[in-house]
From TrEMBL:
The keyword Hydrolase does not apply. Signal peptide: none annotated. It comes from Streptomyces roseoviridis. Coiled coil: none annotated. It comes from the Bacteria. The lineage of its organism: Bacteria, Bacillati, Actinomycetota, Actinomycetes, Kitasatosporales. Keywords: ATP-binding, Nucleotide-binding, Transport. GO terms for molecular function: ATP binding. PANTHER family: ABC TRANSPORTER, ATP-BINDING PROTEIN. Residues 18-248 form the ABC transporter domain. This is ATP-binding cassette domain-containing protein.
Length: 268
């Protein structure tokens, strides 16, 4: 059954894969997140905002890498606090940071198998899970290539493979299309959209076009505060002069996003 459907025969919406309530994070004198409320449901949810808006900080809460100074975080049904709960959650999360470390002499297969070991995939299952992850991102033919020889697009695909090798219930992607050329970006968006059919995906981005092509649900974060929660179509509807019921497209979503930013007076 698709991740978009509920197990409830009455058709009630699926429980969120993760949520934050009143989350505040401070870095010395800077408030990175200011009382943020958000839910992240099965499928792809886009976290849209300019650089410095607090997107990476919010992902760090969802990944359990840090705790909020105040507020609550729940991930995969667990309150994200306490060592035992945190370890349980981490084994069920996949993460692709904006910049991820890798040894350039590792082959793609070795890189993904190493990620499987880190995420405690049983030794007997690692080779199969690695093959499964490489097949998912269409890198089976590149399995024995060195990581240092991959193009930007293939490197991102390898990053997705390592994030998926433990069959995660939640995948976190931080600015995954940055640095890709237009053709690579189109292919990567298709891959992320397909992932949303399998699991819950949260993708942070500052590119409205990514949201138009991938995200059905959108959170807009500006200066550490949540300023919009809704569908991509609802964000498009904020564009000046937009016809009612017009299809979602990149220019309309960009215009709706900019109207929200200007209304808020946020930094871009």
């Amino acid at each position: 059954m698709s991740a978009h459907h509920s197990d409830d025969p009455a058709g009630a919406p699926a429980a969120p894969a993760a949520s934050v309530e009143g989350a505040t994070v401070r870095y010395r004198t800077v408030v990175a997140l200011d009382g943020v409320d958000a839910e992240f449901h099965p499928g792809v949810t886009a976290l849209l905002g300019p650089n410095g808006a607090g997107k990476t900080t919010l992902l760090s809460l969802l990944s359990t890498a840090r705790r909020p100074d105040s507020g609550t975080v729940r991930v995969l049904g667990e309150p994200a606090r306490g060592r035992a709960a945190t370890l349980r959650v981490r084994e069920r999360i996949g993460m692709l940071p904006q910049s991820f470390g890798h040894h350039p002499r590792f082959t793609v297969r070795e890189f993904v198998e190493y990620a499987a070991w880190l995420r405690k995939v049983p030794a007997r299952d690692r080779r199969q899970r690695t093959q499964e992850a490489l097949r998912l991102v269409d890198l089976e033919r590149q399995a024995d290539q060195r990581m240092g020889a991959l193009s930007g697009g293939m490197l991102r695909r390898a990053g997705i493979a390592q994030a998926m090798v433990n069959r995660p219930a939640l995948v976190l992607l931080d600015e995954p299309t940055v640095g890709l050329d237009p053709a690579q970006r189109v292919g990567f968006r298709t891959l992320v959209k397909d992932l949303g059919e399998r699991t819950s995906v949260v993708m942070s981005t500052h590119l409205a076009e990514d949201v138009a092509q991938i995200g059905t649900r959108v959170h807009v974060l500006l200066d550490g505060r949540m300023r919009f929660t809704g569908t991509a179509a609802e964000l498009c509807d904020r564009a000046p002069g937009r016809a009612a019921g017009a299809p979602v497209d990149g220019p309309s979503l960009e215009a709706g996003y900019l109207a929200l930013v200007q209304q808020d007076g946020a930094r871009v």
